[in-house]
Amino acid sequence: MGRFASTASTYEHLRPPYPGAFFRSVAQKLGLSERCALIDLGTGPGLLALGFAPYVGRIVGVDPEIAMLEAARQAAARAGQELTLLAGKAETLASEIGTFDIVTIGRALHWMDRDATLARLDGLVARDGAIVICASFSVTDGRNPWLDGYNEIRRRWSPANLWEAAGRGTRTHRDLPAFFRGSAFAPTELVTVEIRHTVSMQDLAQRTLTYSSSSPEALGDNVEAMLHDVESHLASFSRDGAIAETIVSTAQIVKR
Fold this sequence. Notes:
Elements: H1 8-14, H2 20-30, E1 37-41, H3 47-52, E2 58-63, H4 66-79, E3 84-87, E4 100-105, H5 114-124, E5 125-138, H6 147-157, H7 160-174, H8 176-180, E6 186-200, H9 201-207, H10 216-219, H11 223-235, E7 242-255
Parallel strand pairs: 1-2, 1-4, 2-3, 4-5
Antiparallel strand pairs: 5-7, 6-7
């Protein structure tokens, strides 16, 4: 079982969303059209692939987790969208797959081997193409006052080795200049879209189970105990069972 197999059924609906304005803004910045081909590496349930679908002509999603690919397949069917899905890792994609105008990577870069990924990207990105590193997360500037306690409970219940690995991955993900240093690519423009929405207390608690360090597989028999702790913490921030959340979605554009 892969690290995200036990999260596939809920990941799509519970992680911080990418709003429609995010995809429109990135598509406009890059001048996307139906002539463009896009490949989404570490596609998971297809959030980025399907979000960009209205703006490109061909879409491919790649993921090593079969359960995630099935979730993406179902999401594409619901959306009536054609989506080619490949099982595998970005680092080992066959050269026969060709080149793409846009390569998107979401919450997956920190799981990839840096040197192998950079070498593969060099042959995967078309001459005038771009890599787009995307993220969507709760802001940490105090506008989500429930967040620190929420993360502390996740840390307390997560196996120490998984929590430490998640922390290292987050730092790797955000230090993109270091990731691309010495390669043919460099970060250029950053697109940022911020939204404020409400999420039910139960859904926000269940979101903890979509992270590898606090997934059902990682927690085992402790799932219900952790959820109880999270919901107890969130109760003091809830109004009629809903929690206000400010989310920022970012797209770092990377080019040769």
